[in-house]
């Protein structure tokens, strides 16, 4: 029996030794995981631009003048990094029937100059002044401003303040311009 116990003990020691040898032969490979996230901004739930066009009526008076400032809510703007912001006027002012070539009747004005300013951005607001200059009209870009250097979420709006016309406004169905808010992730 003693011989049998000795043999079992020897086999057990060999098995332990073999197991120890396998553990010493184990190799490992560290794997570093990384991710890169592109910067983006969203208006509402979309990162490709506004879901719809917003409409804003500039107030006028019954005597051919302009009224008080008007505002429109753009919605929630979310940027995962800082952003630059700019306002641009497509026509350089509101023009009668959206036509920059119509000549106003004598003593009347056929355009409305205005200034527009963003509201609600974390730091600097974007502005543009759209105004007819020596009968020339063109795209008018406001200054590109950095509104924040870090990620942000803000409820943003735009306020449009019309300038008093030099002459009464000519009656017409519509004075139009397109104001564009650009939010560019850094």
Instruction: Assign the CATH topology.
Output: Jelly Rolls
Morphology call: rod-shaped
N- to C-terminal separation?
83 Å
CATH architecture: Sandwich
Structural class: mainly beta
Total number of strands: 12
Cα radius of gyration in angstroms:
34 Å
Quick recap of the structure?
By secondary structure, this protein is mainly β.
Write up what this structure looks like:
The chain has 186 residues and is mostly beta strands. It has a single domain (41-185), classed as Sandwich (Jelly Rolls). 12% of the residues lie in helices and 33% in strands. A hairpin with a 7-residue loop joins β6 and β7 (127-130). The longest helix is centred in the first third of the chain and has 23 residues, at 2-24.
Q: How is the secondary structure organized here?
A:
Layout: H1 2-24, E1 41-43, E2 70-79, E3 83-89, E4 94-96, E5 111-112, E6 114-119, E7 127-130, E8 140-141, E9 145-148, E10 152-162, E11 175-176, E12 179-185
